[in-house]
Amino acid sequence: MGKTILFIGIGGFIGSVCRFLLSQFIQEKFTEHFPFGTLGVNIIGCFLIGVVFSLADKGTVTPEWRLFLATGILGGFTTFSAFSNETVGLLRTGQPLPALMYVTASVGIGLLATYVGLFANKLL
């Protein structure tokens, strides 16, 4: 159990650092105050978790690697707590339409990306 926790923790560190760097990189490309960085990270994370679970279902990824990749790296990478905070921030600053667009895009495109990730291996 201790070894598993260590691998998840290392993965979480990797995912968190990647989340920060990629979110900043994406956000710097836009001048608007809309949280494009977090949106991009969430969609990418949803796609990647679909890929990881698809590979795990095929037996290509062991349960240990699935924990490292999905729980560790992707758990640290995806940012729905930031998503929630940013949505509330948009609402608190009187921006209900951008908040609604953010929630709709995050959930809708995120679910679609997860679905595509799950079935991407079948196309190859």
Annotation keywords:
85% helix, mainly alpha, 5 helices, single chain, 124 residues, 0% strand
Protein described:
This protein is an all-alpha fold. The chain has one domain. Helix content is 85%, strand content 0%. The protein has five helices and no strands.
Major sheet: none
Shape call: globular
Q: Could you say which structural class the secondary elements and strand pairing correspond to?
A: mainly alpha
Number of domains: 1
Question: How many DSSP H or I helices?
Answer: 5
Q: What distance separates the N and C termini?
A: 35 Å
Percent range of helical residues: over 70%
Strand content: under 5%
What's the rounded overall pLDDT mean?
Answer: 93
Tell me which oligomeric state these chains represent.
single chain
How many β-strand runs?
Answer: 0
Order of helices and strands: HHHHH
Radius of gyration, whole Å: 16 Å
Poorly predicted segments: none
Strand-helix topology:
Blueprint: H1 2-27, H2 36-58, H3 63-77, H4 80-92, H5 96-123
Helix pairs in contact: 1-2, 1-3, 2-3, 2-5, 4-5
Short characterization:
The chain has 124 residues and is mainly alpha-helical. It has helices at 2-27, 36-58, 63-77, 80-92, 96-123.
